[in-house]
Design goal:
The structure holds two protein chains of two kinds. Chain A is α+β, with helices and mostly antiparallel strands. Chain A has eleven helices and 33 strands. In chain A, strands 21, 23, 24, 25, 26, 27, 29 and 30 form an eight-stranded mixed β-sheet that branches. In chain A, strands 11, 13, 14, 18, 19 and 20 form a six-stranded mixed β-sheet that branches. In chain A, strands 10, 12, 15, 16 and 17 form a five-stranded antiparallel β-sheet that branches. In chain B, helix 8 runs antiparallel to helix 9. Classes of the chains: A alpha+beta, B alpha+beta.
Chain lengths: 619, 258
């Protein structure tokens, strides 16, 4: 049993393998388009002696061409750099190209013509284009690279960064869509933040919106450019001569700024260059507003000659197909007409194709769908008579912008069989005839319509242009919550500081505690209790100084505080007073001598003066 | 002496009677001219089918500097009855600024537009259309109050988050939501404030929009009576207007009213 299962799995594997091989063999092979082309391009058309440039020989729609041997070029030494290949698939069509790159070193100044180069491939001979090149004596004669400049000058860059405007036709009929292309050419420059073009045009022209831009490389006057292409269309709203453009494109030029790092002598020695300049790339961006040339555009009026009576304004080169289904219906049942207009032109001007006659049919408004190159209409018609034998021909007329003539395309007539309905259905149709719409609305109640009666009260009458948003009281009220919030924040911050910042809290409480101590000392003064008076006086002073300067109160002696207060810049007069208070207190507390009432009063006054001085100094 | 006293008494009586009669007369006059009285009087004219008289009375209230949604609604009805559908549409549009959710108003406005073969169109890009749809049922005053409420709510949240640390967990999200709601409401309020100055309605016949503000300039498009347009520029007797589809042209001021 296990062997049979193994056989089955082996068979499955085998068949799977065969399928894979079959698929691989039948995969669409690259099928190169036949248009072989051979192009020569350089990466710049101005170069100085001692600099090099790159010459590229591109073979489009071919991939296995060996590197051609360059003939000796007058004024240049050449070296082969290697090939690069490219393959692209567009709509299933594969195209490939190979480019052989060469390094050219100029050996003398002058204007040179490179090529045309010749190659032989598959027995055929091909010739490339010619490239113009100028070799200058020094670098200064060449427009500077933006990499080494603080600010770019547009004049210098105009041959490496520019835009063009192209209208497919320079004259068109009224409402005729004409493709418009704006190209941005960039050669070896860093560009970013490219905005969609802005196109200045006269009234009387209508410009469509730009499609998503496409990017590719293009050979322009022998130099390879990166191109960004914007496509849209233009059509005229009234006859006349118009100026189109200039087109503007806004973008940012990326410039590597090394000027600040250069030596004082302006040396460009690579050994002096800061490695971080290159590594981190001190890039700056400069906004540019690129401007194209103007283009002229002529709008022609449509000819009146041979203009069909029912011409609806369609312009372009169209084809028209129509179909009707079903072609066998009961009386009152719908028949759908499908009409498709396809081709090239302004589809906004394409109207519904008309039936030659609507007799015997109830015709409804069509549903319209518009795509890039087609416009389709689905129209429901209902036969209302048994006499109807055919749907009349449908005709579509348009003005052919290629030939400059009016054209009419007709489709049909379509033979149709109308079947007599059953009795019940017949009744329904008769009812349906009386109303506008078919059977569905036959049972619906037809309601009248008019405006609803006036309001019986004026509502909330208010002065004109007096609104809440321009009421001064309301506007003033806006500040209240914010002020309230600020007050709360201040209170909260103070409370929080009292909790977390001990130094601040002690400093804040010091005068309050000192005031209580002084009051108590006054009581002992009144009772003439010198010992207790001196104790409280000393304690008050010790605690005040401890709190005030964020020191341990118990460890405060005259020598410690004296040094501290000197640093704080306290006047000598106050220091003397302090010393006297400490001295008097020590005498009474430790030598048991008595103080007279006057001395006690004097000590208390000194303490008050000291505290008052230190509080004022704090502020 | 008695004669003198009698004379004085007579003068006093006369003075008093004048004093009584005159204030009474002026009060009666004021009452008749009060906006409320004028409104009810206009309603009576309307009921009697005297629509022109009704319009005069309603306009008089507006001339006195008063306005309300019901006043504009009734004025719209009167114009409709007079056959001036453009002016009816204009007044219904004005009434929308005060009573946007009134079903009678919506019904009448729709009916007038239907009679004029017009469809209600909104202007601007998709964002403006969304904002318009979101705040269509809210008046400018309500929006201003709502903004104030959102503002107070946010301040309350900030104060509470000082004392309740749990509230701080989502502070980023809450702040973003508040800012978004506030910014959106402020934008909508700004649009509503600008609406009356920058939008107009075609009130008389078909207006021709021209390429230039000149009588003999080429006609670009036509605007039907009741069409709403945005005013983008002005030049003496001309307004440069933009249609819902962004087509713009010059229209004579006489055709439009704001």
């Amino acid at each position: 049993m296990a062997r049979i299962r193994n056989k089955f799995s082996l068979l499955k594997l085998l068949s799977l393998g065969l399928c894979v091989i079959y698929c691989a063999l039948n995969l669409p092979r690259p099928c190169f388009a036949k248009e072989f082309s051979f192009e020569a391009a350089v990466d710049r058309n101005k170069v100085s002696l001692g600099s090099s440039l790159q010459l590229s020989l591109s073979f489009n729609n071919a991939q296995n061409i060996p590197a051609p041997e360059l003939p000796a070029i007058d004024g240049f030494q050449s070296r082969y750099l290697g090939p690069s290949t490219m393959m692209s698939i567009v709509n299933g069509k594969v195209s490939g190209s190979i480019t052989h790159n060469y390094l050219l070193l100029p050996v003398k100044i002058g204007v040179f013509k490179l090529g045309p180069f010749k190659v032989e491939y598959n027995g055929d001979k091909y010739t490339s284009n010619q490239v113009n090149l100028e070799v200058l004596e020094s670098q200064s004669q060449i427009p500077a690279q933006p990499d080494n400049r603080a600010e770019p000058a547009m004049g210098d860059l105009s041959d490496r960064l520019f835009i063009t405007i192209q209208v497919k036709k320079d004259k068109a009929y009224l409402n005729e869509n004409v493709p418009l292309t704006i190209k941005l050419y960039v050669n070896r420059l860093g560009i970013k933040d490219i905005q969609y073009p802005e196109l200045i045009h006269e009234e009387g022209l209508s410009i469509g919106t730009f499609d998503k831009p496409s990017q590719y490389q293009e050979l322009y006057k022998g130099v390879k450019f990166d191109v960004i292409e914007f496509n849209t269309s233009v059509f005229g709203l009234r006859p006349g001569e118009f100026n189109l453009g200039p087109a503007h494109i806004k973008c940012n030029l990326i410039v590597r700024n090394q000027s600040k790092r250069r030596s004082a002598f302006g040396s460009a020695d690579p050994f002096e260059a800061d490695i971080f300049d290159n590594f981190f790339g001190r890039h700056e961006t400069y906004p540019l507003d690129l401007k194209s040339q103007e283009a002229s555009f002529r709008v022609l009026a449509l000819p009146q000659e041979n203009k069909p009576v029912d011409f609806s304004g369609a312009l372009g080169n169209f084809s028209f197909e129509a179909d009707a289904a079903p072609l066998e219906v009961k009386l009152g049942d719908p028949v759908t007409l499908k009409m498709i207009v396809s081709g090239e032109g302004n589809f906004n001007t394409v109207g519904v194709p008309k039936l030659k006659s609507e007799k015997g049919f109830k015709v409804y408004e069509p549903q319209v769908k518009q795509n890039a190159n087609t416009k389709s209409f689905e129209q429901v018609i209902i036969p209302v008579s048994l006499e109807v034998k055919e749907i009349p021909a449908l005709s579509f007329n348009f003005f052919d912008t290629l030939s400059g003539e009016y054209k009419t395309i007709s489709r049909g007539p379509f033979t149709i069989t109308i079947i007599k309905p059953d009795k019940e259905e017949e009744t329904r149709i008769v009812e349906g005839k009386q109303l506008v719409a078919p059977s569905v609305t036959s049972r619906e109640e037809k309601l009248g319509r008019d405006i609803i009666y006036i309001k019986d009260n004026p509502g909330r009458l208010k002065k004109r242009n007096e609104y809440l948003y321009n009421n001064k009281i309301f506007l003033g009220l806006q500040a209240v919550p914010l002020l309230f919030y600020l007050i709360i924040v201040l209170i909260y911050a103070k409370k929080r500081r009292l909790k977390t910042d001990l130094k601040y809290a002690r400093g804040l409480l010091a005068p309050r505690k000192a005031r209580a101590g002084i009051l108590q000392a006054k009581k002992y003064l009144d009772k003439a209790e010198a010992g207790k008076f001196c104790d409280i006086l000393f304690l008050t002073l010790q605690e005040y100084l401890g709190d005030r300067f964020h020191l341990s109160s118990k460890g405060i002696t005259i020598s410690i505080i004296d040094e501290h207060l000197r640093k704080e810049g306290v006047s000598e007069d106050i220091l003397v007073k302090l010393r006297e208070i400490f001295k008097e207190c020590d005498i009474v507390r430790y030598a048991s001598s008595q103080l007279s009432r006057e001395n006690m009063q004097a000590s208390l006054t000194k303490l008050e003066e000291v505290i008052d001085y230190l509080q004022r100094k704090k502020r | 002496m008695k004669k003198i006293n009698l004379f004085v008494l007579l003068i006093l009586l006369a003075g008093t009677s004048i004093g009584i009669v005159f204030p009474g007369a002026s009060f009666a006059q004021e009452a008749a001219n009060a906006p409320g009285s004028l409104f009810y009087q206009a309603n009576i004219y309307y009921q009697e089918g005297k629509y022109a008289e009704a319009i005069k009375s309603y306009q008089k209230i507006l001339g006195m500097g008063w306005e309300s949604g019901n006043l504009y609604y009734n004025l719209g009805n009167s114009y409709f009855k007079e056959g001036k559908l453009g002016l009816a549409a204009l007044n219904y549009d004005r009434a929308k600024g005060f009573i946007p959710n009134d079903s009678d108003l919506r019904s009448n406005y729709d009916y007038v537009l239907q009679e004029l073969n017009l469809e209600p169109r909104s202007f601007g890009n998709w964002f403006e259309k969304v904002v318009y749809a979101l705040f269509a049922g809210i008046t400018a005053d309500m929006l201003a109050a709502m903004l104030f409420f959102v503002y107070i709510l946010f301040i309350t949240y900030l104060i509470l988050s000082l004392f309740f640390s749990r509230l701080k967990i989502y502070s980023g999200l809450v702040t973003c939501v508040f800012i978004a709601v506030f910014a959106l409401s402020a934008y909508a309020l700004n649009k509503k404030i600008n609406y009356r100055n920058s939008f107009a309605i075609v009130v008389s016949g078909k207006a021709e929009a021209r390429f230039e503000p000149l009588e003999n300039a080429t006609v670009y498009f036509e605007l039907g009576e009741g069409s709403r347009v945005e005013i983008v520029d002005k030049n003496e007797n001309w307004y440069k207007v933009r249609r819902f589809d962004n087509k713009s042209g010059w229209v004579k001021k006489d055709f439009l009213d704001k």
